[in-house]
Amino acid sequence: MKRIVFVALSVMFLAGCPSLPLQQPEPPTPVIPVPPTEPTPPPEKVPELPKVREIDWEGTVQPLIEQMVKANGLGNGKLLLVDTVKNNTNGVLQTMQATDVLRQTVSSKGIFELVPQNQVQSARQSLGLSEEDSLGLRSKAIGLARYLNADYVLYSIVSGNSDKRDIVMQLMIVQTGEILWSGHGDVK
């Protein structure tokens, strides 16, 4: 008897459920063309790009390197690390270009053997130093030179403002940190 009541209630319950009609896919939304609007007039004045002043790095570093190679106590054939030129100005400088010119100028004198650039980059990565570290310190340069077993390090800083910049270069003995030669000049 219980089965019959259960079956009857189930039938009544299922009969009360609305059946869902089969859904037809909706037709695609029609594309309505929009007429073009009038173009907006261009701004009255196009902002100018900042002027990049070309720097004669070769003319800037050549006289300083001439002074440096005449310094007393330099050992011919010693290993030299040319550290990346630091930018302490209020503007943007192409420090990598300056460093490359500095390396070429020192190399052309034949006094030092330079640490190869690929070794410098690899050592910078190993020590966690950025290639364009503008907050470079002498201690970082000496530490990098010690890591590379260099005898000397050439440390260079450009300071001033966009109107007048000057460069200071220091040749330091890696083992002692002693400044063997120092020179400065105007950035041309």
From TrEMBL:
GO terms for molecular function: enzyme regulator activity. It comes from the Bacteria. One of its GO terms (cellular component) is periplasmic side of cell outer membrane. GO terms for biological process: peptidoglycan biosynthetic process; regulation of cell shape. Residues 24-44 have a biased composition (Pro residues). Residues 1-23 form the signal peptide. Its main location: membrane. Residues 24-48 are annotated as: Disordered. The keyword Lipoprotein applies. Keywords: Cell outer membrane, Cell shape, Lipoprotein, Membrane, Palmitate, Peptidoglycan synthesis, Signal. Interacts with PBP1b. NCBIfam families: lp (TIGR02722). Belongs to the LpoB family. This is Penicillin-binding protein activator LpoB. The lineage of its organism: Bacteria, Pseudomonadati, Pseudomonadota, Gammaproteobacteria, Enterobacterales.
